[in-house]
Structure formats: structure tokens, C-alpha cells
Amino acid sequence: MKLIWNDDHTVASMYVRQSWLKDATMCPEKGRRAIISPDWNTPNELTAFGTAVHAAAEAKLLGSATNRAQMLDAALEAFRELDTDTLRWVKYQRHELLPLFDLAVDAWLTDVYPSVDGDILGVEHNFTYEIGRFEHNGVTVILYGTGTIDLVTSTQLWDWKTSTRRYKPAEKQKQDIQSTMYGGAAVAAGWAEWPLTFNFGVMIRGKNEGQIVPVDRDASHFEWLRRTSMAFARQYLNNTTDVEWPMNDTHYLCSDTWCPFWSVCRGCHAQ
Ligand code: SF4
Q: Does residue 209 fall inside a structural domain?
């Protein structure tokens, strides 16, 4: 979440991404630390892998790659750009990861791409739209959702994912924040109306297997996102980011592998 004041501090513009909201919902302190130490959130090899597979899909959708080999080249080139000294390797060694690109590209081409329908309106489309506003101690707070939709067509919304295992559709339907945030962006842009369906195209890492997970969203899901986002905005304004926010260490993502702040937070204490 990013806070920008106007010159006389009467208007606070707050920008929230779904990934931040997801982290902060799981552990508010992780959200606070991401605000004050954004540089700590360095990508690991799994997020870099996902970004590279996105590049392959983008190349195909925009026509710069027409076949699997060219898509693979686009993925490997994107990965090489991310594979710097700051990349954290949390699961694979480099030689183990490289063969997985071809499988993911083929899974997208074979199991996901054939289900893409409609005219392409946007690929890797950046959005920012107003989620809501409220008054707080004489300040007008305007909350914006911001992010990037992987694919918008005249009939569909898509996001590409790479995952260790298949998604559980019922879990996504119940808990997913991204589909609500991105659905709201499509509605705000006039591309869609509630209710809508948001599609996840999931490539299972290490397997030549893609999965399509549709998630249904309506105006009541968006109202919930608006309420939870505003609660965090108030938390930010009331408590500032100078003091710790509530910490949740009961989730498996509270670990040395998955939380970049582990070494200065839960990891400082007896396990
Ligand atoms: S180490 Fe655990 S408690 Fe601390 S910020 Fe990370 S997830 Fe939250």
C-alpha cells in the first residue's frame, strides 16, 4: 500500500495491490514491513519463473512469437534478465529449473490458450481505479486499486499462474482476492459488468499440465474487498507504519522460505 498526500495534507491517495492485500490479510505486520522495506521483497526463482512464463504468453498473444520454440526463447530471455545476484533461490537449483520452462510453455499452449476467446483488448494491461473514499480526521482518503491484468478480451478476463500443485477451485472461489480486484478494474473500465467470471490459467510446475480455474465474482464480493481495503487504510492512518501491526505466525507462509522479513521478525525468537 502506498500513501501519497496532496500539498496541504487534506487529501490522502492510497494505492493498494491485490498481492499486498493478500499478504496483509494473512499477516498485517507483513503488509506493514512491505510498506517500509519494499526492497526486502526481492523475487525468488519461483516468482521469476512465473514472470518469464508470462513473457512467453505475452509474446504469443501479441504476435512476436508464433510457435512454441519462439515462446520458449521469450521465456528464457525474460528469466535471464531477472536471474541476477539478488534473486533468492528457495526451492530449485538453476539446472533443475531451466528444463521446466519448456513444460510450462507447452502446458499454456496446449491446455490454456485454446480456451482464450474474443477480441484482445489488453495484454499485461496496467490499471488504477478508485475503490472508494472516506473522511478521516478532516482528511479525504481516496483508495485506489492498482495492478496488471494479464489478458482482457471482449468476453474474458485472464491471469496466468505457475504453481507447484493444481488449484482447488472451491478454495479460489471462496478466498481469492485477485479476481475481485481485477474484476473491479474491468467494471471500472467499462469492459465488464457484475456478475463476471475471472479465469486463472495455471501451469503446474514440472508437469506438462495446465488447468483452467474460473472464479465467479459479483458486486457483493467487491463490496467486501472495499471494506477490507478501507480497514487497512484506516489502520495505516491511525497507527502509522512506525509501530508493529498485528502479527500472525500461524500460517505456513510465516517461514524463512516464504516471508522476506523472517530474519527480523518471527525468526528472531525461539522456534
Ligand atoms: S515473519 Fe511471520 S509474523 Fe513476521 S511478518 Fe513474516 S509472516 Fe508476519
A: yes
How many CA atoms are closer than 13 Å to the CA of 190, on its beta-carbon side?
0
In a domain, 262, yes or no: no
| Residue 213 domain flag | yes
- Which of the four pLDDT bands, split at 50, 70 and 90, describes residue 271? confident
Domain span at residue 170 reads: 2-255
CA nearest 130: which of 121, 140, 119, 138?
140
CATH of the domain at 120: 3.90.320
Cα–Cα distance measured from residue 22 to residue 181, given in angstroms and rounded to the nearest whole number: 11
Pocket of ligand 1 (CB under 6 A): 27, 29-30, 33, 247-249, 254, 259, 261-262, 265-266
Measured CA to CA, the distance from residue 11 to residue 7 in angstroms comes to 8
Out of 241, 261, 264, 268, mutate this one to test ligand 1's pocket (max ligand atoms within 8 Å of CB): namely: 261
The answer to whether position 268 is within a domain reads no
CB 195 within 8 A of CB 218: yes
Per the structure, the count of domains in the chain is 1
**DSSP 8-state symbol, 192:** -
Q: pLDDT of 141-169, one tens digit each?
A: 999 999 999 999 999 999 999 999 999 99
At 114, which amino acid appears?
Answer: P
Tell me what pLDDT residue 86 has.
Answer: 86
**Dihedral sign for Cα atoms in the order 6, 9, 10, 11:** positive
